Amino acid sequence: MTFQSAAFAVDGNPLSGNFLRLMQQSATGGSQGIIGAQDMYVTANTVPNPGINIAPGACVVLGSEAAYQGSYYGYNVGVDTSLTIAATGGAVRSDMIVVRAEDPTWSGSPWGNPAAGQILFPRVISGVSPGATSVPGMVSAIPLARIDMPVSTSVVQQSYIHDLRYVSQPQRIMQQVASAGPASRANWTVSTTAHAWPPGATWPVFIPAWATTMVMSWTVGDLLWVSGTARGFINPVFGSSVTAPAVAFPQVIVSVPATEGAAGAWRHTCTGASTTTVPASLRGTTQTLQFAQVTDGVATGLMSVDENSQVSVIFEFQQLASAT
Predict the structure, then answer these.
(1) Rounded Cα–Cα distance for residues 77 and 218 (Å)
(2) How far is Cα 182 from Cα 201, in angstroms, rounded to an integer?
(3) Residues forming a β-bridge with 76
(4) Is 56:35 a contact under the CB 8 Å cutoff?
(5) Is 142 a domain residue?
(6) pLDDT of res. 319
């Protein structure tokens, strides 16, 4: 009988470490990497020397050397300072910092015995290809950073370190908000100072504590061009003030030459999309999402929103590896 279940859920049933690793592999969907966005970030020492620091945090390493090897879980408790980077001579060199599973129990393992104590270790793989982002060879390890050492260098500078971490199972959540146009026409404000516009395009948004990145696409539909040349910019922002927002997304130009609407009023739609970093100070807070509008100070034409206009925003918060 080959089918196994979680025997530790009941009393008196031993089970192998291999089964627990297979269960870990199933629970993580066969993925590997760090667990939290800030976990195991590699930095240089404040006073430059050959050593590096690995921040606290957790990771999962998928076994790659044997069939049905399973996955290994580990947690770096405190800052690890055990690694140093060898000095370079007359040529540049790239080293990769990894977390490697050194399990002596699978058949053919080079790690020796006994099968007790620590299994995951921070290691340096020296002399990797310049620009390398993945662990070379079939080895059970995840990359944390690549350190590109210049010629004749014996100290590690922060600028030499390139973050290679990725989150094993990143959290993400997608939402959509929308607002209809006002019951009566609301005109485009002719001013070089930002204004909250269109009216009603304001929503409270909770930013998850784990969110490090936000992807957004938005549409302001059926703007009503009325007269003259209307030209300016519009963009979504986070924060109670549109003149000093906590996060401002890229502006989209809204431009309607008078000649295009000479035959009468007509409709115009503008769209935008962007990816931005979520500042650590905003994570776990509720922020106002609204739109800012500003003109170029030259065009004085009239544009409006009315009951036929609409604003919609689709955004996704993502958990990607981050230094903060």
Answers:
(1) 42
(2) 10
(3) 57
(4) no
(5) yes
(6) 98
91 vs 99: CA distance, rounded Å: 26
Domains: count for the chain: 2
Co-location of 293 and 186 in the same domain: yes
The model's pLDDT over 84-110, given as tens digits with 9 standing for 90+, comes to: 999 999 999 999 999 999 999 888 888
User: What confidence tier does 261 reach under pLDDT thresholds 50, 70, 90?
Assistant: low
Q: Which of 1-5, 192-196, 261-265 has the lowest mean pLDDT?
A: 261-265
Query: What CA–CA distance (Å, rounded) separates 304 from 182?
Result: 10
- DSSP class of 279: P
Choose the final residue of a domain: 128, 163, 198. 163
Domain contains 2: no
Q: Domain span at residue 203?
A: 172-318
Percent of the chain scoring above 90 in pLDDT: 72
Q: What are phi and psi of 177, to 5 degrees?
A: -125, 155
275 to 15, 89, 175, 315: CA distances (angstroms): 46, 41, 15, 9
The reply to whether 154 and 12 lie within a common domain is yes
Q: For 215-225, how does the pLDDT look when each residue is reduced to its tens digit (9 = 90+)? A: 999 999 998 88
Phi, psi of 43 (to 5 degrees): -135, 160
Contact 306, 185 (CB under 8 A): yes
Q: Which CATH number is 90's domain given? A: 2.60.520
Is residue 65 included in any domain, yes or no?
A: yes
Reported pTM: 0.88
Question: With the C-alpha atoms ordered 217, 278, 141, 22, is the resulting torsion angle positive or negative?
Answer: negative
